[in-house]
Protein: histidine kinase
Amino acid sequence: MKRLLILLSILLSFALQSQQIIPLNEKPYLDSLQNIIKSTAPKTSKANASFLLSNYYRNIDSLVSKQYLENGKTLIHGDTFLLAKYEYYRAQYHLDRNKENAAIYYQRAIKTLSKIKNEESDLLQASAWYSYGVTQKDKEGYPFLVKTILEKSIPLAKKYENSRNLGFLYTQLAVILTYNAEFKKSEDYNDKALKILQNHYPNSAELFFTYLNFANNFCYQAKGDEAKKFLDKAEKLITPYPESSVNAFYYYARTLYCITRQKNAEALPIIEKGIFYTKKFNQNLLAQMFYFNKYDILRKLKRYEEAKEVLEDVLTEKSLALDLANRKTIYKQLSALNEEMGNLKGALVWEQKYSKLNDSLNTENVKLEINKIESKFNAAEKERKIATLNAEKNQKDLEVNKKNSYLWGLSLVLLLVISLLIFLFIIFRKNKKINAQKINEIKQKEELSLTKAILDGEERERERIARDLHDGLGGMLAGVKINFSTWSANHLDPEKDKEFYKILGQLDRSVSELRHVARNLMPESLLNFGLETALNDLCEFYNRKDMEIDFQAIRIDKKLPINIQLNIYRIIQELLANAIKHAAASSILLQCSQSEKNFLITIEDNGKGFESNAEQKTKSMGLRNLKNRVDYLKGNMEIHSDSQGTTVNIELNING
Structure:
C-alpha cells in the first residue's frame, strides 16, 4: 500500500494535466470532426472542429495538434467567441509544455469569455479556470487549485445543474482529495458526479473516469471489494471500444487493484496490455508508470535481474526521471536492489548518486526559504517605516494640542490648584505601580533572552554534532562496512569465519546506532518535511510490541517558524521520553492541535504516575529543560498524575 501512495502523486499530476473530455468511441468522433473541416460547413463550425482536433492530438502528435490550432485561427475573422476559444485551446496545447505560457493564454480566454453571456461560454470559462489552477499548482500548491475549482469553476458550471462539465469538475476535485488522503470527501464528490453522469450521460467518458477514480480511491484505502465493483463498471463501458486511447487508464486501475490484492503474478500481463496502449497513443509518462509497477512486482517475485533492467530503462527513458524527486526515488530503489542482489559495489554507486541529489535538493530548499525570509523582512521594514512616520505625525499633533491646552489652562489655574495636587498624587502612585511592572517585565525579558540563548546554543551544537556524526563518521563507517563486505565475499568462508561475520554484524549495528543518535540530535524530517511528519516519525520510533503510541495531529501549520517547530519537537520528545522511561507506560495518547496563535499539546499515559508535588521537588535536567522551553514560548503547563497514569496539558503562544 505504501508503494501505491508513492506513485499516486505522479498519477494525479498526469490526470490533472492530460485528462480530456473525449468520447470513448473515438473514431466516429474524429471522423465527424474531419468531415466538417472537409465539407462546405460555415467557418464557425470548421474553426470549432479544428480546435477540438488540436485538443485531441496535443499529447499524441504535437505537430498535428499545432497544425489544427493554426488552421482554426485563420477562420476567426473578428469573431470574439472564436478568438476566446482560440486562446483557450492555445493554452491547452501549451499546458504540458510551458505552464507559464498556458496560464497567460487561459487568463486571456477567461477575460474574453466573461463578456459573453451564454451556456457554452460559461462552461468553457469554468474549464479555463480549472486548467489555470492546474498551471499554478506547482507554484501555489493544491489549496489554490481546490479554491479555484470551488470558487470559480463549479459556480459557473452549476448554473446548468446537469451538465457533464459539472460532473467532470466534481470528479477532478475528488482526485485531488484522494491524493491529499481525504478519502471520505473524495467519495462525496465522486457521488455528486455519479448522480449527474449516470442519469444523463450513462455512456460518457466522464462517467468512465469517475468509476476509475472511485476504484483508485478504494485501492489506496486497501478496500479491494469496493474497488472491484467500480472497476467492473468501468470495464463494461470501455469493452466495446478496444481502439480507445483511455484503455491505458483502465489497465492502470486494474494494475493498482492487483497490487492491492497482492496478486503480483496476475498484474504482469495486465501491465503489458497497458504498455501496449500507451505506446500506441504516445502516453509516455503513463507508460513509465506501468514500467515502475512492473519493476516493483518483479522485485517482490525475486526476479531481480529483470527488475533491475526495467528500472534502468525507466531512468534512461527520462519521462519519470525528469522530476528530481522521482529520480531520487529511482536511485534509492536501484541501490537497495543491488544490495539485495549482493552487488555491494553497485549499491554504493547508486547510494552516492542518491545522496548527491538529495543534498542538492536540500540546498535548493534552503535557498527558497532564504528568499521567503528576505521577502518577509522587506515587507516588515516597509511597515515599520510607515508606523514610524505615523508615530511622528501623531507626536506633532499631540504637541500642538498641548500648547492649546496650556493656554486654556492658564486662565483656570487658580480654580484647579487643589484638583491638580490631588491629580498629581494619583499619578505618582500610578507611576510607581507602572515602574514596578516595567521592572518585572524587564526581568522577564532578560530571563527569556537568556533561555533563548541557551536553547539556541544547544540546538546549534546538536546540529553540528549530528552533521559531523552523520556526514563524517557515519559515511566513513558505512564505507568500511561495504569494503569489509566486499572483501569477505571474495576471501572468507561464512562457515569457517563466523567470528569475522559476527564482528561485521556488530559494525553494521554500530552504524545504525550512530545514525539513530544523529537523527535524535537533529531530526532531518523536521527540517525537510515539517513538524507533523517529524512527530509522526518520533512516535513510530518509540512504538514497539509492549508500547503503543496514538498520535493525533489537528491543523498543524507547515509554515510555522523553524525555531518554534524545533522547540515544540523538543518538548514532545522530552514528554515521550519521561512517559516511556520513568512511567513504565504501555499506552500513550499524544494530541497536538493549532488554533491561530495557540499550540496545544496533550499527552496521556497509563503508567504508574508520581506524586503531585514531584515536579517541585525534582532536580531533573529534563524537566527543567521542558519548563524552560514552555516559558520561552510564553506557555502554561499542567500536570495531573495518580496511580492510573499521568496527563500533561501544555498551551503555547506561537504568535510571537
